[in-house]
Amino acid sequence: MSTAFSAGIRTALAGQAPVLEVEELSVRFTRRGEAGTQAVDGVSFSVAPGETIGLVGESGCGKSVTSLAVMGLLPGRGVQVGGSVRLDGQELVGAGDRTLRKLRGADMAMVFQDPLSSLNPTVTIGVQVTEVLRQHRGMNGKEATEEAADLLDRVGIPDPRRRLGEYPHQLSGGMRQRALIAMSLACSPRLLIADEPTTALDVTIQAQILELLRELVQGSGTALVMITHDLGVVAGLCDRVHVMYAGKIIETAERRDLFARPRHPYTGGLLASVPRLDTPRGTALTPIRGSARDAIPWAQGCAFAPRCDSGQDDCLTEVAGTTVPLEDDGPGRELRCRHPLATAPVAGSPTTSGADR
Ligand SMILES: Nc1ncnc2c1ncn2[C@@H]1O[C@H](COP(=O)(O)OP(=O)(O)OP(=O)(O)O)[C@@H](O)[C@H]1O
Ligand SMILES: [Mg+2]
């Protein structure tokens, strides 16, 4: 793998123009005769070269739909996409299929949660990896095979030449995930979106994959969007974190700030529900009460209010008809909450998945 950038260079990279700018992105699934589902509701974020951001939140909060919208992979029918997605300044919302297909693979790539469903089961791993190299890097067959074997080797797949001739079902879950990452590395994309890439894997493989992603970001200056509900992954990998709830970003902070001083009661609840290195043994974890299904529409107040222990009457009444705004909450921080948690610092960070930086 290429040499990692020094911390100084990475800081400089992080100061560069963003690779990805998402502004007021909204996605609504519509069905005839039904109100439809507002899966993503005015989401804005950006990612610079060499930077890793985390999109965090419970199941159903809109993480995957956000990433599919960025990649232009949502179905054409029954979906309304609004707002703006710019890749190196180029608008992708409303862009044609040809343009998007050209960008995918070469400039932006995605690692999906379920590698089996994103690899073609009837085609060998070798053909699938070399196809990317032939299409996007114009390599001939022999060059592409050499490079594909090298890529599999780089992602830690043993005996890569033999594996190139195998079908996805012949590989273990961890290997399939690595094969997908190899395909996304093939073109050193400007933007990589990794949607829960390690959820189905055991912790050793998980740590290896996170390390691989970290090397990609540091070595190639790729902008990485890491989608996860695992705060350990966030602690190990992300520079900045956006916490989502019911289709909206409810809190944004630098990783360390978020763990040291969660401000939104939902973020506080997420942190209290996972083991932390500084939690004394035997301390019970506190789950957030209720489930994501209890969310109310944002137009009726704060969607989290029915589950919130810090909520007050005005979370539901005074804001009726308006949406609780996302507001500045100190340097690098934004918050959508009328009654945030006190600012007393909480020491430590949760147990990381993979080595912390
Ligand atoms: N094709 C679809 N048609 C209708 N609704 C959909 C569709 N895809 C997703 N949704 C809805 O959009 C919302 C957000 O889904 P999304 O898959 O983005 O959640 P997520 O945050 O990725 O959750 P998870 O952690 O389980 O992967 C959910 O309410 C989901 O039911
Ligand atoms: Mg998802």
Question: Which descriptors apply to this entry?
Answer:
binds magnesium ion; binds adenosine-5'-triphosphate; 13 helices; 4-stranded antiparallel β-sheet; 357 residues; disordered C terminus; 33% helix
Explain what this protein looks like in three dimensions.
The protein has about 350 residues and is an alpha/beta fold. Helix content is about 35%, strand content about 20%. The chain contains 13 helices and 12 strands. It has helices at about 5-15, 65-70, 95-105, 115-120, 125-135, 140-155, 160-165, 175-185, 205-220, 230-235, 255-260, 265-270, 315; strands at about 20-30, 35-45, 50-55, 80-85, 90, 110, 190-195, 225-230, 240-245, 250-255, 325-330, 335. Strands 6-7-8-3-9-10-12-11 form an 8-stranded mixed β-sheet, with helices on both faces. It starts with 6 loop residues before the first helix and ends in a 22-residue tail after the last strand. The relative contact order is 0.14. Residues about 1-10 and about 355 have low confidence and may be disordered. The protein binds adenosine-5'-triphosphate and magnesium ion (MG).
